[in-house]
Amino acid sequence: MTDVDVVVVGAALAGVTAARVLRDAGRTVRVLEARDRVAGRTYGGTLANGVPVELGGQWIGPSQTAVRALIDELGLPTFPTYDTGDALTRYRGTVTRYGDATFGLSGAAAGEVGRMQAELEALAGTVSLSAPWTTPEAAELDRRTLDEWLRGATTDTEALAFWGAVVPAVFSAEPAEMSLLHFLFYIKSGGLIDMLVGVTGGAQDSRVVGGTHRIAEEVAADLGAAVVTLNAPVYAIAQDENEVRVSTPERTVSAGHVIVAIPPTLAGRLVYRPALPAQRDGLTQQIPMGSVIKVQIAYPTPFWRTSGLSGFAFDLDGALSVTLDNSPPDGSCGVLVGFFEGAHARTAARWSAEERRAVAVATLTDLFGPQAAAPTDYLEQDWTAEEFTRGCYGGRLGAGAWTQYGPALAEPVGRIHWAGAETADIWNGYMDGAVRSGRRAAAEILDRLSS
Amino acid sequence: MTDVDVVVVGAALAGVTAARVLRDAGRTVRVLEARDRVAGRTYGGTLANGVPVELGGQWIGPSQTAVRALIDELGLPTFPTYDTGDALTRYRGTVTRYGDATFGLSGAAAGEVGRMQAELEALAGTVSLSAPWTTPEAAELDRRTLDEWLRGATTDTEALAFWGAVVPAVFSAEPAEMSLLHFLFYIKSGGLIDMLVGVTGGAQDSRVVGGTHRIAEEVAADLGAAVVTLNAPVYAIAQDENEVRVSTPERTVSAGHVIVAIPPTLAGRLVYRPALPAQRDGLTQQIPMGSVIKVQIAYPTPFWRTSGLSGFAFDLDGALSVTLDNSPPDGSCGVLVGFFEGAHARTAARWSAEERRAVAVATLTDLFGPQAAAPTDYLEQDWTAEEFTRGCYGGRLGAGAWTQYGPALAEPVGRIHWAGAETADIWNGYMDGAVRSGRRAAAEILDRLSS
C-alpha cells in the first residue's frame, strides 16, 4: 500500500486544482511545495499604506472560464481593471495620447500593424492547439523565429518597434527567442492578439480583491495543512511497476501516481529513476522561462485619472515598456504597475533596485507628467531571481522545439503526469491554463484508476 | 579547515585535467563523478571480435595542441584516420564518387557552397572568441538563426541540402536551433569549416590507439582512487564566506573552491545555496545539448578500401547522414562509423535498435555496395539517453542567448568555477576545448589562492 493515491509536486494553481479534483473524487492526495507559501507565480505584496498588490500574475479575462469558475466557487470578489480614458504611447521621444484602436501609432505604422496582425492571426487559424506539431506547414512555421517573420513582413521601423514592445509584454521574451509556430499557438490558445493585449473584455479585464494569490491560498486552505506541506522541495521521483516515490530532503512519500505541476525547466532538474526518456529530457532543456521584473509605483491618488488617462501606456523608447493602472478598487491611492520584460528585464536585473526605481519613475514622469515624479512607495519583484520559478510569465519554445519535442510536454511517463500553465492548450501560460492543466492531469489519473 | 582545497564535479577530460593541474601545483583535490566510470563524452566500446571502438568523441586534429600535448605526456600512441581514396555523396538517389574538393556536389551547388562558406568565414572573422557578445553587430548576428542566413544566401536546393547535413555533422543540431553568432563563434573557435569537417589535417585527423577515453582514464589513474570517487552524483553545492560544500547522497566534501566540469544544462540542475544569479540560471535554461546516435557497423574486412574508397560519405537523402572508416589501425577488420544527428537523431531515437540497424545497413549498402549488407557486428550509443550527459556533442546557444547570457558561461560565482568543452574559447565543444577549459579553471583558482 502507498502513503496516498497521488502526490502533487507544486502548490500553485495547477497543483492545488489537481489535488482538489482528486480529493473530491475520493482519492487521497499529498501536495509538496518547495516554498514557504503556496500560489507560485501568483504572489501578494503589500504597499506601506496597507494596500495589497499582486507581485505576479494578476488579471483575468471573461473568456478565462476555468479560473473564473474557480474564483466564483471560492466566493472571491472581483473588480474591473480601471480602463477609463485615454492611453499613451511614446515613440522616439514623442508621447501620443489616443482613445482609438491605433495604439498611438502613426497612420502608416498602425496600418502596418493591423495588416501584420491579420496575417498572423490567419496563420494562427491553421495551428492545432492540442498537437501543434501536426499543424499544416508545422516544419516551416517552426524553423522560423517570430523575429524573422516580423522583419520580413514590414520595413516600417515604428511598426517593428511596436511589435518589439507587444511581444515581450505577452511573452516576457523577444521575438527572436520563440518560433513563429510557438507565437501562433500561443495567441490562438488565448483567443488572438486583441484578447491577449486588451483590458476590458481582454486578458487584463478584471482583478481579484486582495490579489489573485488568494485563489490558490483558498484552495490550499480547503485541502488543509495535512494535505499541503510547505518547505518541501522535491528533488527526486522514483517509479517502478508498483508505485512512485517522491522525495524531499526530509521525507519520501509513496503513491500510485504523481503530478509534477511546476514549470518544465524546473521539472527537468529533478532526479528521476528510471531516468526520463530522451525526448522529455530534451524538451526540458529548451523551454526557458521568460524574464520579467514587475514594479509597483504608488502615489497619494490616481492623479492620471483626473487628466482623463487610463494609466495604460506603451513606452517604445525605454526599458519599462508597459504600464497599467493598478490602484485598489476604491481608488484610495494611486498605483501604477510597470514591467521590465524580455531583454529589458535582463538588462534591468543588473541594475540596483534604486536604479530600477529611478528608471521607472523617470519613465512615468515622461508619460504622466510631473506628479509621477514623487511616488510614495516602490515595490518590485524579479521573477528570474526566484529559485522556485526562475522566470515569468512562462516557458516558451524556440525554433525547432515544438515539432521535435512537443509531444513530450504533457504526455505521461509511466506514473508521472505533467501539469502547469505551459501544458495547457487553452490559455497556455495563464492562470486559466494552469487551472485547466490541473484538471486535465487529475482526469488522466482518475481515468487510469477507474479502468 | 576544509576537507580539500578544491572539489571537481565530473571526471571527464575537463575535470581530470583541472584536478591534475591543481595537484601538480601542490593543492589537495577531490573529484566526484556521477557515473561508474570516468571520461564522460569519451567512452570505449568493444566489438564482438575484441576490437575497441569509440562510442563518443574520438578524433583529434593537428591544431588541437592542448589535447595533443596531454596525449603525448601520457605516452598514448595515436594513428592516422584512414583517409585514402574517394569519398561519396548521395543526393536525390544518386551516389557521386569524388576525389576533389567538390564534396560530390554539382558544379552549381559546389559553387554556391564555396561562396557561402567564404561569406560565413568572413563574418566569423569579426567574432570575438573570448567575448562573443562584444562582436561588432553582435545583436544582429545573434537575433538571426543560421537557418535564416542559409535560406537567405541561396536558393540552390542541393547546396541547402548539403548544409543541412554538414551543420548537424558538426553540431548534432539543426541550423534553426542555433544563432548565426553561435555558428560563427564555433567555426572560428575550431579554425573554420574545412578544419572542422576535414579528416587529414582537420578535426578528424587522428585517433588514439584503444580509444580516446584512455586519455581521461590515464589521468584519473594518475590522480588515484583516493582522489577520484565514482558513483558520486553531486546534487547540491553550498557556499559561504569560508568554504564550499559539495554534496552527493552519501557524502559532503568541503573545499575552498569547486570546479563544475559538466555540461551547462546539467550544471543548471544542481541545487545551489545561495541560489545562482539569474543570468547564470537563465544561461543553463537555454544551452541545450545536441542529439546524436553513433553507430558502429563491422565487417570482416574494410572492403571499401579495395574499391579505392575512403569510407567517408555524406548521405543527403537519409537519416544516417555521415559515415567514416573507423577500422582498427591494423585493418584486421572493417568498421564504418555512422551518425544519426540533429533531427535525424530525434527521429531515430523513437525507433528500435533493430530499426536503426536496418536503416544504417541499408544506407551503407546503397553507398558502398552489396558487401555492406552483411555486417558482422553492430554497436550503438544514444547520447541523449545518457542521464549524465543528455546529448552530444555539446551545448549550443539559440537566437538571442549569446548576447544576453554569454558572460555567465564561464564567469565564476563566488567559490564556484565552470569548466567543460562548452566554456572554451579555442576548440569549443571538442576534447581540446575541454582540456583547455580545465586548465583555465584550475588557473583561476591558483591565481586566487596565491593572491
Question: Can you describe what's shown?
Answer:
The structure is a homodimer of 451-residue chains. The first copy, chain A, has 451 residues and is of the alpha/beta class. Among the domains of chain A are: 4-40 and 212-288 and 398-450, FAD/NAD(P)-binding domain (3-Layer(bba) Sandwich); 107-191, Guanine Nucleotide Dissociation Inhibitor, domain 1 (Orthogonal Bundle), CATH 1.10.405. Chain A is 35% helix and 21% strand. Chain A is built from 16 helices and 19 strands. Chain A has helices at residues 13-24, 65-74, 107-124, 138-143, 146-153, 157-171, 180-190, 193-197, 213-223, 264-267, 278-285, 303-306, 343-348, 353-368, 401-405, 431-450; strands at 4-9, 29-32, 44-46, 52-54, 78-80, 86-91, 94-98, 206-208, 228-229, 236-239, 244-248, 251-260, 271-273, 292-299, 309-315, 320-325, 334-341, 377-382, 416-418. In chain A, strands 1, 2, 9, 10, 11, 12, 13 and 19 form an eight-stranded mixed β-sheet that branches. In chain A, strands 7-6-15-16-17-14-18 form a seven-stranded mixed β-sheet, with helices on both faces. In chain A, strands 3-4 form a two-stranded antiparallel ribbon. In chain A, helix 1 packs parallel to helix 16 (431-450), helix 2 packs across helix 16 and helix 3 crosses helix 6 (157-171). The longest helix of chain A is centred in the C-terminal third of the chain and has 20 residues, at 431-450. The two termini of chain A are 19 Å apart. In chain A, 59% of the residues are buried. Chains A and B meet through helix 11 of A and helix 11 of B.
